[in-house]
Amino acid sequence: MRHVVEVLFDSGSVLELRRDFAPGMVTALARIQGRAVGVLANDPSHLGGAIDADGADAAA
Length: 60
Known about the structure:
Blueprint: H1 2-8, E1 15-16, E2 25-32, E3 35-42, H2 53-59
Antiparallel strand pairs: 1-2, 2-3
């Protein structure tokens, strides 16, 4: 999922937040065509995509 996030947004613009806290949840700041956006994505390779307590905390 992290690779997908890197490809979808402007090159070099993805700043992932708390990466080690919740490996199943991607929380990041990025840019699309120069516009700032927030990113929340759950990783289907971690617990089959289920959001655990740490993932929910990271997304909140």
